[in-house]
Design goal:
The chain has 320 residues and is an alpha+beta fold. Helix content is 29%, strand content 27%.
Amino acid sequence: MTRINQQKRRFWVVSPNVRYDYNTVGLWRQASVTHKAVFMGYHPNDKGHKQIGYKFAHVICPNDIVLIARRHHKNPQVVGYGVVVGPFKRKLTGFKPPEPFGSLRTLSPFKALSGAPKKLKKLNIVRALGQIAALHELHPARRQSDRKLCDWMERQLKAGKSLRTTSGDESRYSSTASVRLANLPHYNELEFQMRTKRAVLLGKQREAALLGDYQKWLLEQGYELQIAKYKRLVCDAYEEERRNLIEAKCSASREYIRMAAGQLLDYAYLGRKFLVTPNKAILLPERPKPESIEWLVGLKISVVWKEGNVFLDNANGQFS
C-alpha cells in the first residue's frame, strides 16, 4: 500500500463519464471500483481538447490524488478517490473495457464511494467540481472549497477510516396504516424459517450476512437502512432518503432473481400509499449474468451486488 506523506502533490478531478455516453457511465464506475483505477477517454498523446489526454497520462504524477467525480444535473456523482501509483497504462490484465479508451492510472490506496456522502456535501463539493469536464485540477492554495476537499481526502487516505458510522439506535420510525419502518435486526435476532432442508436455513443466513455487509457499506456513505413491514410480510430493506426498496437473495441465479422481482412488485403495491413509487432493487452476493436480468428493465427493477468489500449496481449508483 502506498504511504501517504506530506510531499508536494497535485489534486485532480476526473469524470467517470469516460466516453460521454450516459449508457456506459455505470460500467466505467464499476471498472474503477473493481480495478482501483481511473480511466481517460482521450489518447495519451492527444494534445488537442485542452491537452486533456496528454495531461492525464504525462502531467499527473505518482503521489498525486485523483477524485473520480462529476457534476450531473447540478448534483455531484462521486465514484471514489486515491493516490496515483506508477506511470499511465493502456490496458489491465483481466480487464475488458466496455468501449475503447485512451489510458488509465492505477490508484493505491483507493477509497470507493457511493454518490456523494453527506460529509462531502457539507464541504461544498459541487463548487469544487467546477464545470463539467473530463479533467480539471483542484487548487487548494487558491480556493477555500478546493482546500477543504483536498485536506479531507488526504486525512481519509492517511487514516484509513470510514467516512461515517452510526448506531442502529439512531434509526427513525415511521408508520402508516399499512407500513411500519424499524431497525434491521441483529444477526442473533433474525428469525430463520426452518423447513425440511438444511439448505433453506443456510440460504437465509447468507442473505442476512449479505444484508449486514450492505448496511455497513451504506452507513459509510451516510445512508441508513430500515425494514419495511406490511402486517405479516417484511421487505428486507428500505432506504428512506433515496426511497430505495430492496430484497436480498443468497444467489444470483435466475430463479432467485425471479422470486425477488415478484416480492418487490408485491411490496411496492401493498405500500403504495406510503412508498408512492419506490426505486426497486435486488441485492445479490455477486454480479448476475446479463441474460438473467435483462427482463427486469421493463419492470423498473435494478440489481445491486457485492464486489469485494464494496457494492455496485446497474443503476448508476442509485443503490450503492
